[in-house]
User: Fold these one by one.
Assistant:
Number 1:
Amino acid sequence: MCEGGELFERVVDKGGMTEATAGRVMKQILSALAYCHANNVVHRDLKPENVLMDKDEGDATVKIIDFGTAQIFDPHQQMTAKSGTPYYIAPEVIKCSYNSKCDVWSAGVMLYVLLCGYPPFSGKTDQEIMANVCKGKYSMIGDAWEVVSKEAKELVKKMLTYDPAKRISAMEALKDPWIAKNTAHSAGSAMAKVMPALDNLKKFHAGTMLKQAAMTYIVSQLVDEKEKKELQKVFQTLDKNGDGKLSKQELLEGYEGIYGGFIRSELEKAFDAIDIDKSGSIDYNEFLVATLSEKKVLNENNIREAFRLMDKVAGHESNNNRTTTDRLPWTRSGRCWRLTRTSRKRCSKGS
Ligand SMILES: [Ca+2]
Ligand SMILES: [Ca+2]
C-alpha cells in the first residue's frame, strides 16, 4: 500500500530532499492538517515516522498515519494533555496549554528536517531536547542551508513562530508562495486527467440510500489503492485551496477549465447528487463514489465482501473491537511520548 516507506527513511537515505519534492510533500501534509483542523481534530504526534509515501518517486502520495494520540477538540478551549515526540513537540504542548497550531509547529520541524536533513532542536536526552524546544531558538546557518531558497526559509520561520497566536495556520501555510511555486507543475500535468473524472461526476446519480451506503463503504474499504491513485491526483488538482474538500466554486472552476464554460444549474444538480451527506462540500470519499465507475465498485466480489465485513461489524463474528491502528504493522506507538504528571516541567521562552 505504501511501498515508498516512511518519510523519515527517505530523508535519512538521501540526506534531505530537493525543494520541489519537499514542497509537494509539505502541501499534502498541510492539506491533511487543514482538513483535520477544520473538523476539530488535532493529530498531536506529527513526525516523519508517521508520514508514509506510496512510492519512491517525485510525485509520491503522502499519508499521515497513527492517529492514536489524535483528539477531537473544542476550538474555544485550550488542550492540556502533554503528548508528542521530543524533536517534534511544540513548546506550548510541553507547557500544557495549546490548540491545533501545535500540529503546524511539528510540520514546521518536519519541513526543516526535509530541507537540511537534521532537526532544529536537539540534545543528548529527551529532557535536553525539550528544554531546547522550550527556548525556541534554532538556526538556518550552515552548508545545507546555503542552497535553500529564501522563500523556503520564510515558511519555516512562519511555521516555527513561537507564539501559537502569531503562528501561521495550516490553511494559511497552504497559500504560501513557496508551496505554490513548488506544486504548480504537478497541478498542470494532472489537469489532463481531470476530464474523464468530470464526465463521470456529471453523469452521477446517487440512487437509493442503501446503494449510496454500500458504494461509500466499498470505496473506502475495498477499492484498490491503485485505482484510486489517479483520482486522488484529480481531486487534489480541483481542490484549489487544499482544504481536502471541493466547494461548488472549485468544481465550477474545474469544469470551466476543461469545457470553457458550464451551465450553473447543471452543476448545482450534479453537486447536490455527489454531496451525499449534504455538508455543502464534496469530500474525498464522495468524490470517489461519484467518479469511480459503478461497474468497478458494485461487482459481485465487492458486494459479497462488503456484506461479510458489515456482518462482522454487526457482531456476528468476534474480533470486532480492534481499531484500525491495531492492524497497521508500521505503527510504533512506543516512540511517542506521553509524559506523566511527575515528569512535567514548566518552562518558558529563554529559560
Ligand atoms: Ca477546497
Ligand atoms: Ca459532503
Number 2:
Amino acid sequence: MLAGKARCGLLMIYCCCAVLILMSAVCARGQGAVNDAGPSAFLQAKGRLDAAARRTTSRAERRKRQGKRLRAPDVIYYATPTDTVNEMLRLADIKPGDVLYDLGSGDGRIPITAARRYNIRAVGIDINPKMVWVSEERARGAGVADRVRFINEDMFRADISEATIVTLYLSRKLNLLLRPKLLSQLRPGTRILSHDFDMGDWKPEQKVRVPWFRGYRTIYVWIVPHYSH
Ligand SMILES: C[S@@+](CC[C@H](N)C(=O)[O-])C[C@H]1O[C@@H](n2cnc3c(N)ncnc32)[C@H](O)[C@@H]1O
C-alpha cells in the first residue's frame, strides 16, 4: 500500500517535471522566433535608415563644402611648423592696415595666426574645398572669423591685388610660375615670404633659417619693386 502511494507520488513528480520541461521548450522556441525575426528586422530597418541618413548628410555636406569643382591641387597639403609661422609673420614686418594673403592656405594657420596676433585682415586661398572648410572652422574656434576669409579657388586665377603681404609654402616650380602674377598684381612694397622655396634668379631681401628638429626651415623674403609695374 505504502509502496503504491510512493510510486504514485513519484509518477506525479515525473509528470510535473515533464510538463515544466515541455512548457519551457515551447517558451524557448517562441522567444527564439522573436529573437530571430525581431532583431534582424530591426537591424535591417535601422541599417536602411542609417544608410539613407549617411547618404543625405554626406551629399548635402559635400555639396555645401565643395561648392564648385576645381582641378587637382598642384601640391599636397603640408603644414608650416608653428615656429616657422611665427618667424614668417615677424619677418613680414606687419603694420596696422596690412592685408595678408596665403596662397595655398592649407588648414589656415598662417592667416589665422596673423589675424589673432597682429589684428590684421587675412585671406587664405586653397583649391581643396575640405581645407577651406577646416580653415573656416579653425578661424571660428580662434575667434577671428570676422577678420579672416577663406576662398576655395585656384591661386593662379585669384585676384590678389589687395594683398600687402603674401605667404607661400608651395614648391620652387610653383613659385616661378606664380612670379609673373605676383609682380604684375601686387603693389610695390608688398612683402612676399616663402617657406623653403626660392624664386630662381629673383634674389631675396632676406633668407632666414628657423631651427627644426635636427635641421632647419628656410624663410625667403622679397619686396615687390617699383619697376615691376
Ligand atoms: C604645402 S600646403 C601649405 C599650407 C599652408 N600654407 C601652410 O604653410 O601651412 C599647400 C596647399 O596648397 C594648396 N594648393 C595646391 N595647389 C593649389 C592651387 N593651384 N591653388 C590654391 N591652392 C592650392 C593645397 O591644397 C595645400 O593645402
